[in-house]
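--- STAGE predict ---
source: upstream dedup step, 1 unique chain passed
mode: sequence only
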Amino acid sequence: MDKPSEEAALRDLVRRTVETTPVLDIHTHLYPPRFGPLMAWGIDEMLTYHYLVAELFRVAALPYDRFWAMSRREQADCVWKHLFLDRSPISEACRGVLTVLHALGLDVRRRDLSAVRSYFASVSAEDYTNTVFRLANVRAVIMTNDPFDDAERPAWLAGAETDARFLSALRIDVLLNQWERAAPRLREWGYDVRGDLNASDCRAVGRFLEDWIGRIAPRYMAVSLPPEFAFPEEGARGRLMEQCVLPAAQRAGIPLAMMIGVRRRVNPALRLAGDGVGRASTEPIERLCTSFPENRFLVTMLSRENQHELCVAARKLPNLLVFGCWWFLNNPSFIEEMTRARLEMLGLSFIPQHSDARVMDQLIYKWAHSRAVIAEVIADKYVDLLRAGWVPAESEIRRDIADLFGGLFERFCGRLQTGVEA
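--- STAGE serialize ---
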């Protein structure tokens, strides 16, 4: 086989392997049908996803209050008109809706929202969940489970049985970022918390965390943090992190996932769509990893400008695993740039993507779009090896991609990596 043919065959093999390897989606906001109204799915949920709501207000002369007073169906109609009919749906969020509908076999050329709604009215949540997992080629997802969420908490207290494909993660944003709100709730639930975070308070918080770890068996604890996050840090968050969260994570043998860089309520009138981004420092990550070497940390950062520094930190810290292209970075141009840089700096020791899906349907488009980009970047790197005289075996390629799509994450959650780059 001549060299161009050999390279083309290698690219085809990588593309097929990326396409056919089932993925473990390590961060979503999804729920199984057994959680009832917490499960979001269907065309109206897709069209009113906060990415599209933010985009809507850029083009529609519509008062915020008027939009929020509409029913979900009316809001979806509004988004469809302004973003799909009055102009071409060219943004990534709009294209995602079309990718889903096309994958389901629906004719988007007709621009017939009523026909689309008829399809969704004809399927059950259970059957649709199976369809989505099959089309997205996702073997399991990790949820976001917040014990401070009054809509979700009762389901766990009642002993909710979840689908085996839906794994849990203990979300602790309220605990770490809103202690003044968390303390009275803990007292209400029977934990002896005064609120001043003395030693007794910290023991009570530790019991709370251990209770919920035992109740939901999370794969990790997770928190989103503002750009100004620091460690060490004066105040409640720093003390809770050091005295409660990290000891509980170590005892349970689970990582702490930190998603850093979100600026909440930049435009409060947009509600969930109103959050923004800010550049953070990687120094707190470095201090946490070196101060708590027995703990493991999963980290993603929201600012594009933070990505190089995060890769450098990960090269030096074996208990740090970089993951995903989060939120505003979940666009093909950024996915390509970040995946290429990470492969060049970290080899295969990172998690290239997570969906962050809030609507079940989004698993289809977010993974279809991400796989297409990731496949091309990985193929380039294997061709580089080929040109250097190293011929990657098919079994090696399958092994590597299986690691990127969940295997490495599972090992990282199971044990502490060893070995530090000199």
